[in-house]
Every structure is written in structure tokens, then in C-alpha cells.
Amino acid sequence: MEISYTHVGDYLLPNIRLSDPPDAPPLGRYGMMHKEYLTFVLWMRSLVSLLPPIQAITPISLSR
């Protein structure tokens, strides 16, 4: 098995691809609820990570 690499900046990163998963059974009720929960949590984390830069800009923009 030969691994190829991509040069990114000063680093060589391996070109890794996952094969397509076998046909999985459909998610049940609780699987769908968990997927919806994770989507919401990840969205909220990304939104919260934007707050410090926004809070730093707000006083500057209000003073103009």
C-alpha cells in the first residue's frame, strides 16, 4: 500500500480517504433525535466562538 502526501506550507499531510460505509440501517427515533441535538450543539458552539470578536468590535463601532 503506497501513501501519497500533499505539501501544505512546511508540512506533508497524507492523502487519506475513507471508503464509503456499507449500507447502514436507517436511524431510529432516538438516533434522529441525537443527530438533531448534535447539529444544534455544534451550531451553538460555533456561534458562541464568534462572540468575543464581536464584543471587541462593538465598542469601537458605537464610538464612531
Write a concise keyword list for the protein shown above.
two-stranded antiparallel ribbon, 52% helix
**Strands side by side in the biggest sheet:** 1-2
**Average pLDDT rating:** 80
Number of E strands: 2
For the biggest sheet, the summary is:
2 strands, antiparallel
Order of helices and strands: EEHH
Q: Helix coverage percent of residues?
A: 40-55%
How far do the termini sit from each other? 61 Å
Structural class: alpha+beta
| Strand portion | 5-15%
Low-confidence stretches: none
The DSSP helix count reads 2
Global morphology: flat
Radius of gyration: 21 Å
In short:
This protein has two helices and two strands; from the N terminus they run ββαα. By secondary structure, the protein is an alpha+beta fold.
